[in-house]
Structure to design on (674 residues):
C-alpha cells in the first residue's frame, strides 16, 4: 500500500504569484501552516484556504487544482502530483451517494458538491492522458473530469461539502507506487484533520501478498490495518453486525496454540516445526493465535531487509556452570536418554509421566530429568522435533518425537536446539553461523499460517476439521466486516457552541435548520450543525440571512431555504443574539421552510430513490438492505438475495432465470400436473 503526497517548507508560506509553480513537502502537507493556516471552524472555510495555494486548472463544469509534492530530494528528486477536483451535483450521475448508504449514512442529506483528492498512479495517469487524446498532453491543460472515474489511483478520497467523506483507493509499493501505504494514509489523515472533516468511511480491501489485512491485523492486534489511524467498525456485509464481528474476532484471537499444535501433525507435519521456531525465538510465551501473529508481525517489522537473525534451530545449549546444578555433559546425556525413550514408542504421543518413568531407568536424578523435559518442549534435536502439547481431553502434557531429517538442510550434524533458563532466571544460549532467518522467511511463514490456519478447511474430517472449520467460519465473518469509520470530533469536543472571534468583534455560532421534509410525511429534518460568523451586535435578521447562505451553499435540498424563527424550544431562553450562549452547548436551532419548487424536485429524487428501496431484500444471511455486494432477484417472488448466499460463485455469471429456494420448492408439485 503506498504513495503519498507533498508538504511545503518549514516557514509559513506566502501565496503563489501568478504563473509560479510551488513545491510542497509531502511529509508535512496538510498540517496547519503547510501550506495554509487551516484554523477555521468549518470544513468549507478550511478547504477554501487550502485551495488558494493550489494551481488552478480551468476545466469547465468541474473546477480543479493541483499541488506538486516533494517526496525526497536525495539521491534523486522525487515528486508526485495531488489533484483536487470539485464535482458539482449537476455533474454527478447519481444524486444519492451509494458509499454513504453502504457505510450506514443512507439518511444523509444531498450535498451540492464533492471534492475529490487524487494522486494518480503511473497507470491511471497514462490512461487519463490517453482518454484525453494526447499521450504527451499535460494534465494541467486538460479536463480532469475523467480522472476521478478511473480505478487504481495511489490515493483517491472525496469529501461532501458538509465534511463527510470516503476513502476510495489507497495503493502502495506492491502496486508499483513510489510511496508506502503508511505514507499515503498519513497524508490522508493529515488532510482530514486539517480540513476538519466530520466522518470518513472506507471499504477495507487492503491486502498484502494475497492476505486480507483486516483479517491478519484483526487477529494479531484486534483491529484492522486502518485501526492505527482510528478507524472502527461501521457496518458489515452479508448480515454481519458489530456484535458478530467482535465475537468472531475474539474467538479466533483466543484459540490456544497448544490445542492447534496437538492436532495439526495429522494434517501437516511442517506446521508444528514452524510454530516451534517462533515459540523459541520469542522471549515471552506464545499462548494464543493472537500472540503468534502479533510476534511474527513485530519480528518482520524489526528485521532489516538485507540482514538476518539467528535461527534457533541450530542453537546449542550452553549453561553457566556457576549457576547450574548440572554439567553440560550430564545434560547432553539426559537429552539423549529422553530421545531414545521417545523413539521406542514409535512416534506416538505419550504422557510426560511415561517419558519420565522410561528415562529414570538410566537417569536417577529426577531433578535433571524435569529440567530437560521442560527445556525440550517443541525443540529440534538433531534430525528430530520433540513436540510437546497439552492434551485438551486429559489435561496432561504429552510428548511426541517427529523425524524431520527430510525437511532440514544438509550438515545439521546432530546439533541440539535448546534454550534453557537456569535457577537464577537467566537464559543462556549460543549459536553457530548456520541457518539464518530473514525478513522474507518471516513473511513466508506468516503467509503459510494465514492460509493453513485462518482460512477455511472444508472437507477436513474429525476433531481437527471441527476446530479449523470454526476458525474458517469466524474468519469469513471478519472478512465480511468491510466498512470502517473514523469520526473527527472537532465539534463534539468543543464545550461551547458560541465563540467570540477577532478580539470579540465577531461571534461564531454553531447552528442548524429544522425543516419539514414533505417527501417523508412532513418529518422534521435537521442537518449537522455548521458554524456561522456574524457581528457581535448582529440582529436576528442577519443571523437568519447568514444561516441561509451557509446551508444553501452546502445542501442541494436547502437551495432556497428561508429561516423564519428560532425553534420553539429555544424561544424562551434566547430573545436576543447575545443570549445564544445561555443555551449552553446545545447550539442554535432555527426553523426554516423550503420553497414549493424545490420540494417537488426533492420529492422526485426521493421517489426515484424509494423505487430502488421498494425491492425486497430478504437474504438468508439476514441482510435487509443493499450492502454493495452482488445480488440476484427471484423471477417469481421478486425477492433479492446475495449471489454468494444462494450458491452462485464470485466468478460465475448471474443466472438469466433464477428461482429462490422457496419458490422452487412450491413449483415442484406443479411439475406433476398434466
Amino acid at each position: 500500500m503506498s504513495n503519498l503526497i507533498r508538504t511545503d517548507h518549514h516557514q509559513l508560506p506566502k501565496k503563489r504569484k501568478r504563473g509560479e509553480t510551488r513545491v510542497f513537502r509531502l511529509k508535512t502537507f496538510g498540517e496547519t501552516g503547510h501550506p495554509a493556516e487551516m484554523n477555521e471552524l468549518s470544513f468549507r472555510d478550511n478547504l477554501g484556504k487550502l485551495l488558494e495555494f493550489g494551481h488552478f486548472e480551468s476545466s469547465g463544469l468541474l473546477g480543479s487544482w493541483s499541488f506538486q509534492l516533494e517526496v525526497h530530494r536525495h539521491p534523486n528528486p522525487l515528486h508526485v502530483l495531488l489533484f483536487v477536483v470539485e464535482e458539482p451535483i449537476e455533474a454527478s450521475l447519481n444524486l444519492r451517494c451509494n458509499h454513504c448508504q453502504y457505510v450506514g449514512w443512507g439518511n444523509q442529506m444531498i450535498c451540492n458538491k464533492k471534492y475529490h483528492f487524487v494522486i494518480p498512479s503511473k497507470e491511471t495517469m497514462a490512461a487519463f492522458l490517453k482518454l484525453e487524446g494526447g499521450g504527451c498532453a499535460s494534465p494541467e491543460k486538460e479536463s480532469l473530469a475523467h480522472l476521478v472515474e478511473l480505478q487504481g489511483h495511489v490515493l483517491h478520497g472525496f469529501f461532501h461539502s458538509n465534511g463527510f467523506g470516503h476513502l476510495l483507493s489507497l495503493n502502495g509499493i506492491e502496486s508499483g507506487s513510489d510511496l508506502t501505504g503508511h505514507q499515503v494514509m498519513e497524508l490522508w489523515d493529515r488532510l482530514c484533520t486539517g480540513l476538519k472533516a466530520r466522518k470518513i468511511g472506507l471499504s477495507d480491501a487492503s491486502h498484502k501478498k494475497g492476505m486480507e489485512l483486516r483479517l491478519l491485523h484483526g487477529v494479531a492486534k484486534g483491529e484492522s490495518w486502518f485501526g492505527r489511524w482510528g478507524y472502527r467498525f461501521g457496518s458489515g456485509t452479508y448480515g454481519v453486525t458489530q456484535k458478530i464481528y467482535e465475537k468472531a474476532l475474539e474467538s479466533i484471537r483466543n484459540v490456544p496454540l497448544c490445542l492447534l499444535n496437538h492436532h495439526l501433525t495429522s494434517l501437516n507435519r511442517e506446521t508444528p516445526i514452524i510454530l516451534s521456531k517462533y515459540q523459541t525465538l520469542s522471549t515471552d510465551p506464545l499462548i494464543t493465535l493472537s500472540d503468534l501473529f502479533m510476534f511474527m508481525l513485530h519480528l518482520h517489522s524489526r528485521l532489516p531487509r538485507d540482514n538476518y537473525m539467528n535461527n534457533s534451530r541450530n542453537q546449542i545449549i550452553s549453561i553457566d556452570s556457576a549457576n547450574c546444578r548440572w554439567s553440560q555433559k550430564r545434560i547432553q546425556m539426559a537429552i539423549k536418554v529422553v530421545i531414545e525413550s521417545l523413539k521406542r514408542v514409535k512416534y506416538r504421543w505419550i504422557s510426560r509421566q511415561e517419558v519420565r518413568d522410561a528415562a529414570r531407568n538410566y537417569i536417577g536424578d529426577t531433578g535433571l530429568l524435569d529440567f530437560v523435559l521442560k527445556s525440550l518442549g517443541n525443540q529440534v534435536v538433531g534430525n528430530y522435533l520433540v513436540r510437546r502439547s497439552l492434551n485438551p481431553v486429559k489435561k496432561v502434557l504429552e510428548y511426541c518425537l517427529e523425524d524431520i531429517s527430510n525437511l532440514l538442510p544438509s550438515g545439521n550434524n546432530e546439533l541440539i536446539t535448546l534454550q534453557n533458563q537456569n535457577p537464577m532466571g537467566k537464559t543462556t544460549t549460543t549459536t553457530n553461523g548456520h541457518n539464518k532467518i530473514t525478513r522474507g522467511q518471516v513473511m513466508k511463514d506468516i503467509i503459510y499460517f494465514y492460509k493453513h490456519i485462518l482460512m477455511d478447511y472444508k472437507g477436513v474430517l474429525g476433531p481437527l476439521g471441527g476446530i479449523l472449520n470454526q476458525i474458517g467460519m469466524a474468519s469469513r465473518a471478519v472478512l465480511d466486516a468491510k466498512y470502517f469509520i473514523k469520526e473527527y470530533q472537532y465539534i463534539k469536543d468543543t464545550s461551547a457552541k458560541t465563540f467570540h472571534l477577532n478580539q470579540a468583534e465577531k461571534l461564531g455560532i454553531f447552528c442548524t435548520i429544522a425543516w419539514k421534509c414533505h417527501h417523508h410525511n412532513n418529518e422534521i429534518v435537521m442537518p449537522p450543525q455548521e458554524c456561522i460568523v456574524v457581528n457581535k451586535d448582529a440582529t436576528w435578521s442577519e443571523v437568519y440571512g447568514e444561516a441561509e447562505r451557509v446551508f444553501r451553499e452546502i445542501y442541494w435540498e436547502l437551495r432556497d431555504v428561508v429561516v423564519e424563527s428560532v425553534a420553539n424550544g429555544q424561544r424562551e431562553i434566547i430573545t436576543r443574539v447575545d443570549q445564544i450562549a445561555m443555551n449552553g452547548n446545545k447550539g442554535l436551532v432555527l426553523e426554516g421552510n423550503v420553497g414549493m419548487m424545490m420540494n417537488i424536485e426533492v420529492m422526485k429524487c426521493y421517489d426515484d430513490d424509494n423505487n430502488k428501496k421498494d425491492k425486497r431484500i430478504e437474504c438468508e444471511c439476514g441482510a435487509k438492505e443493499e450492502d454493495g455486494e452482488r445480488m440476484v432477484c427471484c423471477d417469481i417472488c421478486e425477492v433479492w438475495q446475495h449471489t454468494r448466499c444462494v450458491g452462485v460463485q464470485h466468478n460465475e455469471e448471474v443466472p438469466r432465470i433464477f428461482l429462490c429456494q422457496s419458490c422452487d420448492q412450491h413449483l415442484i408439485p406443479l411439475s406433476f400436473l398434466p
Observations:
- The chain has 18 helices and 30 strands.
- The first strand starts at residue 23 and ends at 25.
